[in-house]
Amino acid sequence: MTLSAGQTASCKSLVTNQLYAVLLYNTSPTVIDAAVTVVWSNDVPPSRVVVRGTTAEAAAANFVFVSGTDTGFVSISLEPGTGATVAALVVSVSMPWNTAGLNNAELPSDGQFHPYQKYYRYYTKGVPGWRSVTIESPVTQFISLRIIESAATVIVVNVGSGLADGQVSKFGPTANQADTVQIKNVQYQSYLEYIQGNGGIWVWMYGDSQLNSASARIALQGLSATALFLKLSGLSRLSEMIRSAVRR
User: Fold this and answer.
1) What pLDDT does residue 184 have?
2) Would you kindly state where each structural domain of the chain is located, as residue ranges?
3) Highest mean pLDDT of the ranges 20-24, 95-99, 100-104
4) Which residues, 6+ apart, have CB-to-CB distance to 210 below 8 Å?
């Protein structure tokens, strides 16, 4: 969804215990900062988030986090008369509901790299055993979002100066807890994380500019000893069946 002057967008029916990230991209035709008004409570005054403008939409996203534990809605708006435009996207384990314009796909657990570009959302379902996730990009300060049911990590690969002031905003007591939203600065061109299945959903959302899309990639690899044991057990049983048939 793209907002222009005087427009408001709302996301309602937020679910308790789920964390939501609103990604904001400045899509203005000229270099102009976008002042976005954020409302998440009828009891707390609105706040402003500034999404900086660049040439050719070269900036990464701003991230606005709220929890369904604290609120049932979040709204964003642009003031009348502004020349700015903003593309907005709500991401969680269950959102967005409307995936038109997104590459929304399950990330194969095949140990192979897959393209990771603007408006790409990958997910995987938790399974028993360990798996590894690798995100690679040669560009300085490549930004990605990893979100699970009630927590998120903003990952900065090959970090440079770090995230800009205000690039990550958290509203409400739950989103502001120390372990709810974390920032992971990685000094290298590759980020490796080990994940373990618990039946939940893991989501990775591209958070950088289109300019940095070409060389970014992501991979999911199964490391489960359980899976290997089952395969070996299956082969063992097959061999025993063959030997039994031969003896007969």
Assistant:
1) 97
2) 2-91+102-234
3) 20-24
4) 57, 117, 118
pLDDT digits over 38-67, tens only? 999 999 999 999 999 988 888 999 999 999
Region of 134 please: left (phi>0), alpha (psi -120 to 50) or beta: beta
218 neighbors 107 (Cβ within 8 angstroms): yes
Question: Among 140, 243, 133, which residue's Cα sits nearest to residue 192?
Answer: 133
Per-residue model confidence as pLDDT tens digits over 191-244: 999 998 778 999 999 999 998 988 899 999 999 755 444 444 444 554 554 455
Question: In which residue are the tokens 């194969």 written?
Answer: 108
- The Cα 79–Cα 126 span in angstroms is 42
